Amino acid sequence: MKMYAERRSIAARQMLADGFLISWTGAWIVAGVWVNNLIEKLGLPGQKLQEGGTSFAGNLNQLGGEVDQIPLVGDKLTGSFAEAADASTRLADTGRRIHEMAETLALVLGSAIAVVPIALALGIWVLTRLRWTRRAAIAARVRADPAGRDLLAMRALAGCSLKQLDALGSGVAQAWRQGDPAAVDALASLELDRLGLRLTRA
Fold first, then answer.
1. Do residue 51 and residue 105 come from a single domain?
2. Do residues 196 and 157 lie in contact, with contact meaning Cβ atoms separated by under 8 Å?
């Protein structure tokens, strides 16, 4: 299976397209990672809130346990510390949810920003390259057969511009009808040139 044309000009364009695809992919991956990191930073306050709330609730519960040892007033004070600890725990849960939402949003947006343009470019590249590869493979197989060259010549007469045909000489069609090998090869070369192939294997 051919990946590149035999003619340098077309092969160079194909290589440039490959290089562009690689650069495009790399650029959008970098952009996706940048967006991911940026949005993750928005979740840092939530993370700090979670850590602070959890730590504060633990300290209040510990302090409530110590206050419980105080005679007469210990039971009453312990309830207040427990309520404050519960409020701190709820605050920590809110911070955790904010942090998790930021992480999820960062992952979704970062991935979307990278994947969508890469997938579009890759799809266009694959379709274009597969179409060329299929046509080039058939043309390369046909060119090895004299009868196949005649088919290529017919294709050139039907598909090439008048300017291209005129460059071969005004009598090229007449010569082809008479089976002139030079005319057949000239027309076949014209058709193969459109695919970046040569009349003889490079």
1. yes
2. no
Exposure string for 166-179, b = 16+ CB within 10 A, e = fewer? eebeeebeebbeee
Domain contains 197: yes
Residues 18 and 59 in one domain: yes
Q: Is the dihedral of CA 132, 134, 137, 143 positive or negative?
A: negative
Q: Token match 């003619």: residue?
A: 7
CA–CA distance from 128 to each of 124, 165, 191, 194 (Å)? 6, 26, 18, 15
Whether residue 117 sits in one domain with residue 153: no
Mean model confidence pLDDT for the chain: 81
89 class by beta-carbon count within 10 Å (0-12 exposed, 13-18 middle, 19+ buried): middle
Whole-angstrom distance, CA of residue 55 vs CA of residue 88: 9
Range in 78-92, 124-138, 154-168, 181-195 the model is least confident about? 78-92
